[in-house]
Amino acid sequence: LFPQAPRRGVTRLPENILDISAMGDKVHKGYGKLILFGEHFVVYKVPALVAAVADYTDCKVSIQEGSGIEVIDDRPAVPGYKVEKKEEADEAIALVLKHMKIDTEKQRVVCTFGGSLTAVSGIGASASQCVSLARALAEATGRSMTLEEINEAGYEGEKGYHGTPSGIDNTAATYGGVLRFQRTDGDPIFKTMKLDRGVEIVYASTGITASTSKVVGDVRAKKEADEAWFAALLKEYEEVVAQGEKALLACDWGALAGLLDRNHALCQKLTVSCKELDGLVDAAKAAGATGAKMS
């Protein structure tokens, strides 16, 4: 979080709810995201705060004679990401097609992905891909779909990447804006947050391609091994996210920055950070960031 951010690599949390229709062709796009508070804790049904970024994945779909699926992946990506994630991406695409009842034995579906969002771990690249595909398929098949239905299709696709996703990434990719999100035993609960003033956030990547499902599994194993330890971390996190929501709505950037620092410290205790992420946080603080954390 920078009071005066450099222009490159910057996303701006909007003063108002992000209007996807005002950001270009709403049919084909799914937006990236930054989790402000709650990565990994959100799995355990506590609130998280997430912001969509302006960069997006877009998709074009062509329905042709024949059968099968052809995927043309022209997204910008860090080295090795698309190769390492190809099997998961293919499964995600197949799940979206299945959910939308697209029969690829009777027709050939060509999906071309592009856009400005760099595919890298942590930015919501998989969710933005799934949501953009759902939107493009809806147009290609002449289907009218609500945002809720697009979000549901994106969630089904995310299962190909993450097994049992939290739903936060596809929700940000679908609706945009700044959101408060919480899992429940049923459908997740989320609401948009309107800010009176904007703030700029610089984000950067280590370039490391990680498996979200593996990290979630590691956290679950640690929780099961020491329930008291995890409960103490969860309680502290709930205090941080409650204060973070108040600071965000009040546009109190000084308080928000300190809470971002505290959330990163909790991620370190949870062992989901790494030396490369910690190094980026340290570099951001040295460059003048008032607060910094992993996402």
TrEMBL record:
Higher taxonomy? Eukaryota, Cryptophyceae, Cryptomonadales, Hemiselmidaceae, Hemiselmis
Q: Which top-level group of life is the source organism from?
A: Eukaryota
- Keyword annotations of the record: ATP-binding, Cytoplasm, Kinase, Lipid biosynthesis, Lipid metabolism, Magnesium, Nucleotide-binding, Steroid biosynthesis, Steroid metabolism, Sterol biosynthesis, Sterol metabolism, Transferase
Q: Which GO terms describe its biological process?
A: isopentenyl diphosphate biosynthetic process, mevalonate pathway; sterol biosynthetic process
- Main localization category: cytoplasm
Stored SUPFAM superfamilies: GHMP Kinase, C-terminal domain, Ribosomal protein S5 domain 2-like
Q: What NCBIfam families does the record point to?
A: mevalon_kin (TIGR00549)
Ranges of residues in domain GHMP kinase N-terminal: 109-177
Named in its record, the pathway it takes part in is: Isoprenoid biosynthesis; isopentenyl diphosphate biosynthesis via mevalonate pathway; isopentenyl diphosphate from (R)-mevalonate: step 1/3
Q: Name one GO cellular component term.
A: cytosol
What's the protein name?
Mevalonate kinase
Q: In which compartments does the protein localize?
A: Cytoplasm
Q: Which Pfam families match?
A: GHMP_kinases_C, GHMP_kinases_N
Record organism: Hemiselmis tepida
EC number, UniProt record: 2.7.1.36
Record InterPro entries: GHMP_kinase_C_dom (IPR013750), GHMP_kinase_C_sf (IPR036554), GHMP_kinase_N_dom (IPR006204), Mev_gal_kin (IPR006205), Ribosomal_Su5_D2-typ_SF (IPR020568), Ribsml_uS5_D2-typ_fold_subgr (IPR014721)
- GO MF annotation terms: ATP binding; mevalonate kinase activity
PANTHER family assigned to the protein according to its UniProt record, in alphabetical order? MEVALONATE KINASE
Family listed: Belongs to the GHMP kinase family. Mevalonate kinase subfamily.
